[in-house]
Amino acid sequence: MDDSLLAVKGVSKTFGGVVHALDDISLAARRNEIVGIVGENGAGKSTLMKILVGVYPPDKGELYHKGEKVPFPRDPKEAAKRGISIVYQEKGVIPWLKVYQFLFLGHEDKYVKFSKLQTDKMKKQAADILEELHVKCDAEVFMHELPLSTQKMVEIARAILSVRLESGEDGTTPIIILDEPTGPLNDEERRELFSDLLEMKKNASFFFISHIIPEVREFTDRVHVLRDGKLVANYDFSEEKIEEEDLFRAIVGRESSEYISKVEIKGLASKTVALTAKDLTKKGHYYDITFDLHEGECVGIFGPAGSGKSQIIRTIAGIMSFEKGELVVNGQKLKASELPYVRLKKGIGYFSGETGKELFLNWPILKNISFVNMQKILGKFMPVINFNAERKMAQRIVQLLRIRTPSVNTDCYSLSGGNKQKVSVGKWVERKPDILLLDDPTIGIDVGAREDIYEVLSEMKKSGICMILVSDDPKEYSILCDRIMFVMDGRIQKVLSPDEFRKVVGI
Amino acid sequence: MKRSTGNRLIPAVIVRTLKEQPVIIALIAVFVLFSILFPDRFLSFLNFKTILRQFITLTLFAIGPSIVVVTGSLDLSYVGIWMLGGILVWLCMPVFGLLSIFVILLLGVTTGFVIGVIQTKAKIPSFILTLSLLVTYWGLTALLSGGYPRPVRGYGFITTRLIPYIPTTLLWSIPIIAAAIFIMKCTKIGTYLYAIGSNEEGAQLAGINVDKYKILAFTLSGLFTGIGSMILFQHLGGSTPVELNLNTVVWPLVAIVLGGTPLMGGSGGPQRTILGAFTFCVFYRGVYISPLHPYSVQLLVGLLLIVSIIVSARGLKSVTIT
């Protein structure tokens, strides 16, 4: 790779000595090129980029700049000296600064004369660089007055500028890292951003981090796919024709684990409809989502991260609102924005595998289980908690889910991850909502605990409770679901049976 | 269960209690320290009587706000309710006679409810909101009273001594404290309030109407402050102070935090506030009778507040709701 501008070789990084965030990654960027880096959340994209700009030091690996070996930068300023700068996903813009102030933020000391900022000089230079980079905006308006896509462009201009100012010579081609720049933009703004980027390519190279497959395919020259900290695929769009499906499979296709479920919980669906979604739409997230959910059925919403699957389930839970469409539960039409407590009254429970969100870690197990089941343990005449009933309820759940704990009074933070998750599920087992939403129910827990949770979920299904599943693990869909809706770019592409689904994802 | 001999000397229950409530150690330490330093003046009947009097006053003011602190918010309006309530009693006296005292209760509940509604709907920090309200009430009090203390008589019966040596305010405060602890420990409301303080998002996701219970917390706080102010009305002179005293604002806060309710909420509560209030009064009296300069009391109270905030924040993880 002689023509490479920047290359990393064999970069590895672990956190806490256990989690392999990056494992032997080698990749390069040439001059005037947009290199896509894709992968799911947690695949290591951001860690890699943070190493490049000096936020983290790597454990192993080498960095080459224009073919010469150089040490890894220790902070963003040093990275800028080597030509590397980053535009973060969000919160990069300071709304109440004017464009020129924002462009030179952090470099003011270069424009100080007799301890006074030379604002005229800054304004002029700002205008020059904006024109050079084809950013169409005035240097003296406030950042928040600009449309989102222009704000992004100003951020990119700022990154290029900081490279120039730090490296001290205009000859260094800046390498700009764009961390999911299109997140908050709508379709039109995206297109605008990309046409500007193609223009800017003449002056810089880009690492473009994204999980939106179509845009990566359309606008990047090459793409690297990361999965679980490993580089799993490289595609060069100028050499071969790559389909979206290929990219998709590379991104999500996990190595098949040894885990084979003994639990068989499909085929329990009855004919009674419990929930109907009709043309649910929230602009920028999902469009025209239509499906029925029957009693005792589990429907999976599957897609890559960023496809809108989590937004759909969060909408049903009442955490987000929808803009158009209809949501009917047990014959009752739901309002577009209702808080989770209203939805729970109508029979929808939401379970997230993120124990930090779900559990009260400084509480004992029994409180964590009892607090959504208050009605069952309050006295008949006075609204007073029956502590005996509360303990018995918790003990029953602990036994049922095989939670390993010295007693039900143990605080949850001292439990292992799997046991925490079981406590989380346990409260819903006791509550028995009509519809249970599962948002990554077994994230980050071991096989044994998973098996226990699946078993309990199957019991719940048998009793007629229906579920909607969103997960990062394709395997989970094939175990739990009767039907799987394949969602991409916020739209349902296909509805698959578990067998078809297995073929598509290759497990 | 096998335990090392070192642990057998002290029963496990006591070890556990001390671990969870380090304020007990502080209480013992402060008590022993001042007993040794000033055996005559500290260990006197008069001193204990004063400690008890202060303790009751402080507890009645701190018990309501400690419910709010459990949810992770802050309520400083208690002094405002007490001040404005006093002047409203004076204003109502000619019309309603002795029943006027209940205007304080009404004011407390209304204030709490309004704070709760504003705080949850406008989503502004409760500290600033209640502080502004306190200042507003202070101004209103000064305006209505014309700048003079307005003594009201006739409520002496509330604090008439019933049992020798035991202040009647103590008798009154026992059922109030018990009710506060009962609500927090044994009812759905209490459980939900702890839930909100411990993990608001989690409570929301689990289907709790967070806004409703936050409003309820402020209303309860106002209610308890109102009841407390009624009891203390004659006890504290039966008239309205026109000047705002910072001590009356800060001390209940110290009692709450010192007792072990972290300002982030989620644990602690009224039962701890009692301990905190008692410890604070012992500490305060000790410093008061010492030869230190009177102003150093303020200094030490300030430092005590800082230290107890740090300790209670650090202890958050290892502390259960007891």
Note down, in words, how this protein is organized.
The complex is a heterodimer of chains A (507) and B (322). With 507 residues, chain A is of the alpha/beta class. Chain A has two domains: 4-252, P-loop containing nucleotide triphosphate hydrolases (Rossmann fold, 3-Layer(aba) Sandwich), CATH 3.40.50.300; 273-505, 3-Layer(aba) Sandwich (Rossmann fold). Chain A has 18 helices and 22 strands. In chain A, the strands form five sheets. Chain A has a six-stranded mixed sheet with strand order 6-9-10-3-11-12, with helices on both faces. Chain B is mainly alpha-helical and 322 residues long. Chain B has one domain (38-318): ABC transporter involved in vitamin B12 uptake, BtuC. Helices cover 73% and strands 0% of the residues of chain B. Chain B contains 15 helices and no strands. Chain B has helices at 5-9, 12-20, 23-37, 39-42, 45-70, 78-96, 102-122, 126-145, 168-186, 188-198, 200-205, 210-235, 246-259, 270-289, 294-314. The longest helix of chain B is centred in the N-terminal third of the chain and has 26 residues, at 45-70. Chain B starts with a helix and ends in an 8-residue tail after the last helix. The A-B interface holds A 317, 319, 339-345, 349-350, 352, 356-364, 367, 370-372, 374, 378, 383-385, 387, 411, 413, 427 and B 182, 185-188, 191-192, 194-195, 198-199, 201-202, 204-210, 266-267, 316-317, 319-321.
What is the strand and helix layout of this fold?
The complex is a heterodimer of chains A (507) and B (322).
Chain A: E1 4-15, E2 19-30, E3 34-38, H1 45-52, E4 60-65, E5 68-70, H2 76-81, E6 84-87, H3 99-103, E7 112-113, E8 116-117, H4 119-132, H5 148-167, E9 175-179, H6 187-200, E10 205-210, H7 213-219, E11 222-227, E12 230-236, H8 244-252, E13 273-282, E14 286-294, E15 298-302, H9 309-317, E16 324-329, E17 332-333, H10 340-345, E18 348-352, H11 355-358, H12 365-370, H13 374-377, H14 387-400, H15 417-431, E19 435-439, H16 447-462, E20 466-470, H17 474-480, E21 483-488, E22 491-496, H18 498-505
Parallel strand pairs in A: 3-10, 3-11, 6-9, 9-10, 15-20, 15-21, 18-19, 19-20
Antiparallel strand pairs in A: 1-2, 1-4, 4-5, 7-8, 11-12, 13-14, 13-16, 16-17, 21-22
Chain B: H1 5-9, H2 12-20, H3 23-37, H4 39-42, H5 45-70, H6 78-96, H7 102-122, H8 126-145, H9 168-186, H10 188-198, H11 200-205, H12 210-235, H13 246-259, H14 270-289, H15 294-314
Helix pairs in contact in B: 3-14, 5-9, 5-10, 5-12, 5-13, 5-14, 6-7, 6-8, 6-12, 7-12, 9-10, 9-12, 10-12, 13-14, 13-15
